[in-house]
Amino acid sequence: MSAAGEFDLIRRYFHRPQLQSATPMALGPGDDCALLDVPSGQQLAISADTLVAGVHFLPEMPAAHIAQRCLCANLSDLAAMGAKPAWFTLCLTLPANDETFLQGFSDGLAQVAQRYGISLAGGDTTRGPLSISIQVIGWVPQGHALQRNGAQIGDDIYVSGYLGDAAGGLACLQENVTDTGYLAQRFYAPTPRLELGQWLQDKATAAIDISDGLLQDVGHILQQSRLGASLDVTQLPISQTLATQVPLAEQERLALAGGEDFELCFTMPQSWRAQVQDYSKQQQLPLTRIGQVEALSGLRLWRDGQAEVLPENLGWQHF
Amino acid sequence: MSAAGEFDLIRRYFHRPQLQSATPMALGPGDDCALLDVPSGQQLAISADTLVAGVHFLPEMPAAHIAQRCLCANLSDLAAMGAKPAWFTLCLTLPANDETFLQGFSDGLAQVAQRYGISLAGGDTTRGPLSISIQVIGWVPQGHALQRNGAQIGDDIYVSGYLGDAAGGLACLQENVTDTGYLAQRFYAPTPRLELGQWLQDKATAAIDISDGLLQDVGHILQQSRLGASLDVTQLPISQTLATQVPLAEQERLALAGGEDFELCFTMPQSWRAQVQDYSKQQQLPLTRIGQVEALSGLRLWRDGQAEVLPENLGWQHF
């Protein structure tokens, strides 16, 4: 490609109005930096993630689905802090200038950007093995962010939505990479629980999004809060689709360790139970109480009143 | 590696106090997001870049040098906006958990972070072909950022430092990847011209950092300012080292098109000439007047009063 190739490509696929959402920019992409105004009283929340072809997604997936998956996964980190999305940057590494891929990728990004109100502020395209790094920037009223370290003894432990669907969806996609069924969609277009995260401000004592698997992610809350917990495996929320497609033992394994569901797991004083139920009904979003925070360190899984030893290495392995 | 591998690795190599600099964080790495306070009256400046092994650096280079190169290149984008560095995020993709590499990489990052006052706020480590995406966040007093689009007819065009050294250094490193001579250093540890960028606020009419090569980068200023320019190739600042190691024609080619020097190129009304000279002396930083902005579109290269046609494709090719 000509020297102008990168700039033409960036302009065509990434300087589209569809990638600009509600939050304005003082200066958008196209200069050395973007310039952004943060409203006063707000704290920035930032997070960055890389998704590598063959590790985090199937390289043969439609480009729009790859884009959706990447941006939604990053938005989920904002949700877990109770933050409101504002801007993101995209570092896209591509083996070649594949216009079909770029068009699909740009369309997928645009769809998510419009839906969740986030604008592309800048980034970089480079040649190399397919991988995508996205950094999201949001904000949250100063001092009101949800953190991982505030869980208290006796708090209820909740999860949003259903667990294990994304892992089930990945299995579907491995059979048919263009599958657009319910489970496949839960893998490539997970729902960042942004409204829930904002609602949880000043209510939840700790929160995290489920990327590595419920057990690992609850473990992060407990470790940072220096406490333990019991979970009731019979309470794990399993979708009807997963329940009909997968044997019971496998449902449980996917729900506990599948990861990538990008649901929120949060701890809350028991006094909030009624409000949680109301909110869940209003929003038609399952919020399931799956356990309790305890003084005794470690994570215990219970079934029919029997504690089980926690099996090791049930989570997603990055390395 | 065990499931805990990524978290141990992140803690050991990236949660080091050496990677925390002057600018405090409300909440540093280790949660879903970092939380950051932006001083009032300041605008955020953000930029992101990916460096891929074999494309942007030699994979066999010492890890500390790879880290320096990546972070300095990103800081240079802040310099080109006149912004002050605050935080960065790091997405590191590695083929394997190589502790020697990680230690060296972390040390290289820490050295640059301390020197230029930037703190690591978060990021991600993943398995895959070696590549590094860094996003830098800085700030600049609201409305005072340097942009590319403000050049005026008659403005002088300046560059800082010397041109072509980084390209010369890359050639040295291709012969000996552990070379630490002057030219090699200009490749792996370029100097982001942060103080110069801040000094240029309210003086320069346009600025850019030289990453793609002088001709391409001047071209960006001219394109965004909708003007043309003449450059005097006999005025290109060439270091003594490059001048003694490389034939004249090659010096010129490297200075015009080598790229990756991360010097600043800026335009300024002629009335600032005396102040530029004074600043250059005080800082012992060459600031060389190499041309002038003109109404006639296009970029003309002059030598001894003769205009030459601008050869095509003299810049760095991303794709």
Describe the structure.
Two copies of one chain form a homodimer. Chain A has 319 residues and is α+β, with helices and mostly antiparallel strands. Chain A folds into two domains: 5-141, PurM-like, N-terminal domain (60s Ribosomal Protein L30, Chain: A); 156-308, Phosphoribosyl-aminoimidazole Synthetase, Chain A, domain 2 (Alpha-Beta Complex). Chain A contains ten helices and twelve strands. A seven-stranded mixed beta sheet of chain A has the order 7-9-6-10-8-11-12, sandwiched between helices. In chain A, strands 2-5-3-4 form a four-stranded mixed beta sheet. In chain A, α3 (99-116) links the parallel β3 and β4 (119-127). In chain A, α2 (63-81) packs parallel to α3 and α4 (165-175) packs across α5 (182-188). The longest helix of chain A has 19 residues, at 63-81. The radius of gyration of chain A is 20 Å and the shape is globular. Chain A starts with a helix and ends in an 11-residue tail after the last strand. The model of chain A is unreliable at 312-319 (pLDDT under 50). At the A-B interface, α1, β1, β2, α2 and β3 of A face α1, β1, β2, α2 and β3 of B.
The gross shape of chain A turns out to be: globular
How do the strands line up in the largest sheet of chain A? 7-9-6-10-8-11-12
Please report the distance between the alpha carbons of the first and last residues of chain A. Answer: 35 Å
Q: What percentage of the residues of chain A does DSSP assign to strands (E)?
A: 25-35%
Percent helix range of chain A? 25-40%
Strand and helix order of chain A? HEEHEHEEEHHHEHEHHEHEEE
Largest sheet of chain A: 7 strands, mixed
CATH architecture of the largest domain in chain A: Alpha-Beta Complex
Q: Give the number of helices of chain A.
A: 10
Which structural category fits the helices and strands of chain A?
alpha+beta
Poorly predicted regions of chain A are 312-319
The oligomeric status of these chains comes to homodimer
Pair of chains with the largest interface and how many residues each contributes: A-B, 79 and 79 residues
